[in-house]
Write a structure and sequence with these properties.
Layout: E1 2-6, H1 13-23, E2 30-33, H2 44-53, H3 62-69, H4 81-97, H5 100-107, E3 113-115, E4 127-129, H6 147-156, E5 164-167, E6 174-178, E7 181-185, E8 199-207, E9 212-220, H7 224-233, H8 239-246
Parallel strand pairs: 1-2, 4-5, 5-7
Antiparallel strand pairs: 1-8, 3-4, 6-7, 8-9
Length: 256
């Protein structure tokens, strides 16, 4: 079974369109999103409408659940007062511009999805999808986390050797095996912060032999200037345009 997995679209419609076009050229059994559909760019309603039109299921990111529940902030992490200011500006803009239909959809997203790529009739591997970690969608799972941390998380989700735990939230793609379990951060479609401006997603394959897990990180060029100009023409902070152009390598980086 082959899956296309994407996360952290963050209202960047041109990036999403490019990723979906690339997925259409590949052989995948199903496509899922791992949350954070809105925030930071000016197409929250359009991004949700496209995912719904294409029938792409997924889980709730922190931005999705906080917007849906009118929480006091987006649950994002920031490192200085300027980042905090930008984060709040983005959040308030998004809350003001999402439609009632979009808000209801975000509120209905599940926290977690479990997949059985080889079928539920055998004790094969499970692919577990969430946004942050198994407890909260605001928890950042960075690649620097020690094996002990990952193994504790896998134990909490009843993980077994060969299982795959997939998440986003940090906007940086990585793949590691700890305790026989694969941990995959799918990176970001619409707001990468690894210095590569291209939209990112993952093609995950789980085969019956062994079983074997293959993770392919895909980067796709998109019309980043269209996204940047739309930000500049909106009431969103202009800083977000340069953020997209540089792949997050700016002094105003904010974690979504």
């Amino acid at each position: 079974m082959r899956y296309a997995l994407m996360s952290d679209i963050h209202a960047n419609l041109p990036a999403l369109e490019a990723v979906l076009a690339d997925i259409a050229t590949r052989t995948v059994g199903a496509t899922y999103h791992l949350g954070d559909l809105v925030g930071y760019a000016p197409w929250p309603n359009e991004v949700v409408a496209r995912l719904r039109a294409d029938g792409i299921p997924g889980v709730a990111g922190n931005y999705d659940s906080t917007v849906a529940t009118d929480y006091k902030h987006c649950g994002c992490r920031y490192e200085d007062p300027r980042q905090e200011e930008l984060s709040h500006l983005s959040y308030e803009w998004t809350r003001e511009h999402v439609s009632g239909e979009t808000k209801a959809f975000l509120g209905g997203l599940p926290f977690r999805i479990d997949l059985r790529p080889l079928g539920g009739h055998i004790a094969g591997p499970t692919v577990i999808l969430f946004h942050g970690n198994h407890v909260l969608n605001t928890v950042y799972i960075y690649e620097e986390r020690p094996d002990a941390f990952l193994e504790k998380m896998s134990s909490a989700v009843s993980g077994r050797a060969g299982d795959v735990v997939c998440f986003g939230h940090t906007h940086k793609p990585w793949h590691r095996v700890a305790g026989g379990i694969h941990f995959v951060n799918t990176g970001s479609v619409g707001r990468p912060k690894d210095g590569d401006w291209r939209a990112g997603y993952v093609v995950l394959e789980v085969s019956a032999s062994e079983p074997r897990v293959t993770v392919e990180f895909v980067r796709v060029e998109y019309d980043v200037e269209r996204a940047a100009q739309a930000i500049l023409e909106s009431d969103l902070p202009n800083d977000f345009a340069e953020y997209l152009r540089t792949g997050g390598k700016t002094i105003v980086a904010v974690n979504g």
